[in-house]
Specification:
This protein is an alpha/beta fold. It has 10 helices and 8 strands. Helix 2 crosses helix 10 and helix 7 packs parallel to helix 9.
């Protein structure tokens, strides 16, 4: 049993750090792309932008949903198509989607780890602070300059991208107004975020924030999503609106698609 669990963990971690592990043939929606030369991550980054159907025919400003794993061969098409579907069904307000294409995924989406065990899966790490600075200092101003954006903004991700979402929520909560994380890799750095959730929440700003997160049947993730759920039940900041979706019937590689619609409907509606 222990050997089976270990092999499952190896598979999950390898997929998380190297690639998404699944291939889908989602139709590629009409979208814009731009390239930003970043001083924070020291490379050029490809950005994909989907605007809602009424963008060109209105003078309105729109909130923005940012997404790591946002390449055309990654999760950008299926999230853009999902937004379009939910918008056509009047289930969400119109949003601009900004997808960030990966280069070194394990580097950008992980923070510091003192766990030697982590290095075998993500050998290049601790780039989250630079990736976050790229988003805040370079990407957001560029999007605000080129598009009619409202003040409200959020971020969505799963697995390692979910870890980045949760680390940003706990350590830099002012970065976004709402956060969506599916099966975040909370095992990282000896499950630091889950272990220190109480003290991190005690430092939260006095502002309205939303958090939606989910855990699958992957035991080495769900035990920590459940731990954070328990912490929030007793120690959530007064102005935090949050929801935990326990998904024991979903696997690590199915939870994003299984929960995306209810996550977006809950999070995007004010």
């Amino acid at each position: 049993m222990k050997k089976t669990t270990f092999l499952l963990l190896i598979t999950i971690l390898t997929i998380s750090c190297k690639d998404k592990g699944m291939v889908y043939n989602d139709p590629i929606p009409k979208h814009d792309s731009l390239t930003i030369s970043s001083k924070f991550v020291n490379e050029e980054r490809i950005i994909n932008i989907w605007t809602p159907p009424n963008y060109k025919n209105s003078g309105d400003s729109f909130p923005v949903l940012y997404m790591p794993d946002g390449g055309i061969k990654e999760d950008f098409p299926h999230i853009a198509n999902t937004l379009n579907k939910l918008l056509s069904e009047n289930k969400i307000p119109p949003f601009i989607l900004v997808g960030i294409e990966n280069t070194e995924r394990g580097r950008d989406l992980t923070g510091f780890s003192e766990a030697e065990y982590d290095k075998q899966f993500c050998p290049i790490t601790d780039g989250a602070k630079n990736f976050r600075a790229f988003i805040v200092e370079e990407l957001m101003p560029e999007i605000n300059k080129k598009y009619r954006t409202a003040n409200r903004k959020g971020i969505i991700g799963e697995s390692l991208a979910g870890l980045f979402v949760m680390e940003t929520f706990f350590t830099k909560p002012n970065t976004f107004n709402f956060y969506i994380a599916m099966d975040p890799s909370l095992w990282w750095n000896n499950h630091f975020l889950a272990k220190n959730a109480d003290s991190l929440l005690s430092k939260f700003p006095d502002q309205n924030l939303k958090l939606w997160f989910a855990g699958s049947s992957a035991e080495d993730i769900s035990q920590f999503t459940k731990s954070i759920d328990k912490t929030l039940k007793t120690n959530a900041p007064a102005k935090l609106i949050w929801k935990y979706s326990d998904e024991p019937n979903e696997k690590h590689n199915t939870i994003f698609r299984a929960t995306k619609e209810k996550a977006l409907i809950w999070s995007l509606n004010e």
